[in-house]
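Here comes an entry:

___
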Amino acid sequence: MNIRDIARLANVTPGTVSKVLNNYPDISDATKQHVLHIIEENQYNPGTNSRASKSGAGAAQIGLVVEGVYNALYNSLEEMLSIHLHNSGYTILSYHDNYYIQDKQEKFQELTAYVDRHKLCGLIYIGGNFECVTPQQLELLSCPTIFVNAVLPMHTGQTSYSSIQVNHFETAYAQMSYLIKKGHKNICTMISSRIDNSVYGLRVRGYRAALNEHHLEHNFDNILESDYRYTKAYETLSKHLQQHPEITAVCCVADIIAPAVIKAIHDTGRIPGEDIEIISFDGIEVMNYCIPTVTTFEQPMAELMEYTYNLLLGLISKERTHQHITFQTRLIKNESC
């Protein structure tokens, strides 16, 4: 057993374990006691254990790609996966890619070249759209690959890759239906962009499907772009509310824009959660600290991360085969709706 093993069991970084062992002052008492308990429980003696691991020269490398620079949820998932993989002795190569409008054939060619150039033993790709990539092209990925919350081609039978998703379309449909069932007929929908073809584009399809089914197509004119930016979301919604006082609810494509929505409603003389109700999607922690707290559909990120981590290691060791898993969201009822 070595420092990485202790770090994995304690769910901290190896650096934190090292600081505890060397009595650094910048570690909280709670963390210190937790790590020391793990050390004692496993009878770890740093003086007699080898520090050899997969790290260092010739280390086994795993690629971790996140498409969506402004996505706080994906950043959190990236951090959790990085800690787990690092504690298992792998070197993490990661980068962010926000060019969802880039030609996907070109993007996929760049991805396969990246895998081969770095001789990756595994790859996790979070976000993005590879709907137009053929099964034959996907077979060109030379290491076990898991796409997380990505839009992929329809697959039947065994594939050369795995996917782990949240039910984006169904949840978005449920978001809009929740407002409609509460009696709202004039609903404003804040989306990312009309050309966004990621899972956030799938959410927009869900919103439109619910509005169509309930014959509320006039709300298509109330679909506004935010680009995930507070300023644009705030200014666009403020102007729209001034021009359309009949709006009684706002449906957010992602939690990240909800604070701007709340302020826009407040600053146009309405009471958020009372005059205009708000529902969102993702379940990030900050939704519990807004005024009002935001009703949202929560993604099970901890479970999704654990499954991704365990599946990738199983694929690398050839103990598991490729899978396609869909997680369900959970409605968190708060004050905004």
